[in-house]
Amino acid sequence: MARxxxxxxxxxxxxxxxxxxxxxxxCNEKLTNYQFSLLDKYLSNDxxxxxxxxxxxxxxxxxxxxxVNLKSVECYYSNEKxxxxxxxxxxxxxxxxxxxxxxxxxxxxxxxxxxIMIDISRNKVPKLSTLKSIVDELALVKINDLQLYVExxxxxxxSFAEYYENKDxxxxxxxxxxxSKYALDRGIALTPNLNCYGHxxxxxxxxxxSKYALxxxxxxxxxxxxxxxxxxxxxNNPKAQEMVLKMFDDMLKYxxxxxxxxxxxxxxxxxxxxxxxxxxxxxxxxxLKKVIDHVHKLGKTPYMWADFAREYPEMMEELxxxxxxxxxxxxxxxxxxxxxxxxxxxxxxxxxxxxxxxSSFSGKMRNMFGNIKKYxxxxxxxxxxxxILTDWNDGxxxxxxxxxxxxxxxxxxxxxxxxxxxxxxxxxxxDKNIYHNKLAESVILLGDYYTMQDDVSNPYSYSKxxxxxxxxxxxxxxxxxxxxSDCAALNNTKNILNYNECEKVEKYLDEWIKDLKFTKxxxxxxxxMFEYKLIRHSLNLNKTYLKLRDFKASxxxxxxxxxxxxxxxxxxKKLWDIRNKKSDYKYSNYRFILLKKQYISTxxxxxxxxxxxxx
Length: 615
Prior knowledge:
Layout: E1 12-19, E2 26-27, H1 33-39, E3 50-55, E4 64-68, E5 72-77, H2 80-95, E6 101-107, E7 113-119, H3 128-140, E8 145-149, H4 173-185, E9 189-191, E10 193-196, H5 201-204, H6 238-252, E11 260-264, H7 280-297, E12 301-305, H8 307-311, H9 316-319, E13 323-327, H10 336-345, E14 349-352, H11 365-382, E15 386-391, H12 401-416, H13 423-435, H14 440-446, H15 464-472, H16 499-515, H17 523-549, H18 555-579, H19 585-613
Parallel strand pairs: 2-3, 3-5, 7-8, 7-15, 8-9, 10-11, 11-12, 12-13, 13-14, 14-15
Antiparallel strand pairs: 1-6, 4-5, 4-6
């Protein structure tokens, strides 16, 4: 008998070959409400086929064994976490019980911490119902931690109430309490995540708070005249430090039962741009030490991004007890030397690959798979405490849940057991249990459209069509619309497709839409089609821009783009309202509005030129 598909892949599965025939199981074990809901349809007090749970102390904390024989199913575990994981796997076995044979399963995770981090700070804060539905899916694939990344005002800080029009448009403390309980019932801890020091742009660009910035006027990188918002606090200003600690107080009181907190600490750009500050190390330690001590006093272990720690590993002794988060979003940059730093200095660390949805319409799947796989392998090799799959959403948060959920499920598979992850099996799981359509392969393929361009070597510039839509647009330069928490807001790249690349992307999209098959329309189909339409629109925009540059564009082409952008604006708003709170929709939407205005003005200009030429 062929092995039953289990997601994530179990460590060891021995098929003992005898067909098992039963309709229901009898279980006399006490289960939580959630565990009972997973097994309820397979249980009956009238059955003779018994489900047994048996303690086995030799198993690791989250490890378990399942033995299926002709008279019973026996689940072995050492504690409640292992029992919970056994039930999750048993559910998948029972879902396929027509093909079930006697078997022996042994399983345990690679990593203690298996987390998904969702960026809710680039204009888009999901509704509580959306977050709960994501938790439901993460729980079934054995994720045990969820983090909602906060910078700016995506969380409602009570001490700064004057900066919100309506608190319920953003994540509130009440949301956190409700979601924490919901997630914990499903085996997932909700870990607080608040960036500090750098990534403070929203706050430091408010008139009353700009005095707390290290460089209130903003900064530019060496060799560049592009403006960047002030975003790093002045660590020598006690009032600035007080502001940051007050934010932690406002947030952490809603997380009383979790023993860790991600405090950020990455990318304090003003310490490095345009040149490195002569006291950068001392200033960094001064600020982070205060945050670390404060978080410890609140009963939590700080987790922090490892940027400076990798450059100055000796400074970790000054900072005290922390767990380092190693992040890198390109496979070729993740290597043994990167991991050895933590092992050599005996620093606890977590590996943090990326989904690749930032500055993108539909993710960057090929890059994501390589990044996750390499990090999982090296994290396991060098003893990482865990893995956090980061889902950054810079660039207006245009990627949709249809894409994100596939990335999360794939991430869960690599976090639990990175050996022998079968992508076909994962796609089948997604189609059957989440999409309820044959859709997963199409989601993955749409996320690879960027590979049709000539250069895919840099994760920050290789989505050229996104650059075309979000930054370059029709005028060839970006506009500052005040979206302070969006790192892509002032991106000024001129990196767009050439004619040859446009042709390749067009052929790729033509094949993709021809092969798209689904049996019924649902929210996932609508989201995927919206991503496709955005990519197609950006391709047409790119082609029209090239023609305008070469005096070949027609008014009809621009009128088509105007008609299309109006449709996309309506669809964007409709999908936003289904999944998300109002939050800062206006900033994400305004990129569409800017394009619309450019189309209108360019049409008028071309019409005036035609009249002038007597055409």
